[in-house]
Recover the amino acids of this structure.
């Protein structure tokens, strides 16, 4: 499953790259709401939660908005990008009720598999609003209650959400953002430099490890648990680097203002991200009892092919084939020592497999 982005027709003026404090705050709140997806951030999450224990209950009320289906409200809607969180929150505070409903209602429902009625139909007491609230409730009690409040009083919910976001900023995010922002801005400057000189498809393929070119033209495939094909132009494409979003890759294309891709900068990840195909190869390589036995011999010390064959009572061609499968999957490293080639298990890759499985599924 994947999302295909058609980047054809985008000129330099249609491409923007830069950090968004609001999007980073949303990614941080997602980590707090679903810490099992982010074991690498456990220490940070514990400190953030302890900063204001009374904030926890109020954050849980709005947690559906920063669950797996991220609410469009938290992503840029204008180019050039806002200067900081205060400007982004002020823009939310100025949204009319219907615009707020349009941005938030799909996030409360939390799925692209079901459509949401137009905002003008989501008025308290209407059949459309009642059906929408029932569908949210079927997904979870928290979503149902949030939908009920959204339909009944959208501007009151908007102001309550803003108060929660400002409290989170005061409690832990402002200090965190001061640390994270310089590296994200430096990364964005480099991305803008590359976009000015090369095609967007080429830059994104290098920038995002789980992205691949698709056929001729400026089309790329993003490894996501969705099936969609999106023609970006004439809308701008906004690239939002993040230090907290890993292992997720977020694509928001439903708003007419722009298409947004929020991605983890490489320095913020614990390891290079795998494609589904790479993960499949690694897991399949370990399903063979013969290859598993070979791995056990390779764990302690570098060994040559001939020595492995002698230990296993096998032929060198058989061992070479097994080694090739493991090496192609990244599970074995081979190094030349004079006329000999020695092989050793990539224990760091094996140790990461559990985390890689979670990261690939969560993306």
């Amino acid at each position: 499953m994947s999302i295909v982005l058609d980047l054809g027709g985008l000129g330099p003026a249609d491409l923007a790259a830069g950090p968004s404090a609001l999007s980073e705050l949303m990614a941080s709140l997602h980590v707090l709401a679903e810490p099992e997806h982010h074991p690498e951030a456990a220490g940070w999450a514990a400190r953030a939660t302890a900063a204001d224990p009374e904030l926890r209950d109020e954050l849980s009320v709005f947690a559906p908005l920063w669950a797996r289906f991220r609410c469009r409200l938290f992503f840029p809607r204008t180019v050039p990008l806002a200067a900081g969180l205060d400007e982004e929150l002020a823009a939310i505070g100025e949204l009319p009720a219907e615009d707020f409903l349009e941005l938030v209602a799909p996030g409360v429902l939390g799925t692209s598999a079901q459509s949401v009625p137009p905002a003008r139909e989501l008025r308290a007491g209407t059949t459309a609003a009642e059906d929408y609230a029932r569908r949210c409730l079927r997904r979870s009690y928290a979503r149902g209650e949030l939908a009920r409040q959204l339909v009944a009083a959208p501007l009151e919910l908007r102001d309550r959400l803003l108060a929660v976001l400002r409290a989170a900023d005061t409690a832990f995010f402002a200090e965190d953002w001061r640390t994270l922002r310089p590296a994200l801005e430096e990364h964005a400057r480099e991305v803008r430099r590359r976009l000015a000189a090369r095609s967007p498809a080429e830059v994104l393929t290098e920038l995002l490890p789980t992205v691949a070119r698709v056929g001729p033209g400026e089309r790329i495939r993003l490894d996501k648990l969705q099936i969609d094909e999106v023609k970006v132009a004439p809308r701008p494409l906004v690239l939002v680097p993040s230090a907290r979003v890993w292992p997720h890759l977020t694509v928001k294309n439903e708003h007419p203002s722009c298409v947004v891709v929020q991605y983890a900068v490489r320095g913020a990840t614990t390891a290079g991200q795998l494609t589904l195909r790479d993960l499949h190869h690694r897991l399949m390589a370990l399903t063979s009892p013969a290859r598993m036995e070979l791995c056990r011999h390779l764990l302690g010390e570098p060994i040559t092919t001939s020595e492995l064959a002698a230990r296993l009572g096998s032929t060198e061609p058989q061992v070479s084939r097994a080694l090739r499968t493991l090496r192609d999957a990244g599970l074995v490293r081979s190094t030349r020592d004079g006329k000999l080639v020695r092989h050793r298990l990539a224990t760091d890759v094996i140790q990461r497999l559990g985390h890689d499985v979670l990261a690939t599924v969560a993306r």
About this structure: The chain is about 50% helix and 15% strand. Residues 33 and 154 are 23 Å apart (CA to CA). The two ends are 12 Å apart (CA to CA). The first helix runs from residue 21 to 33.
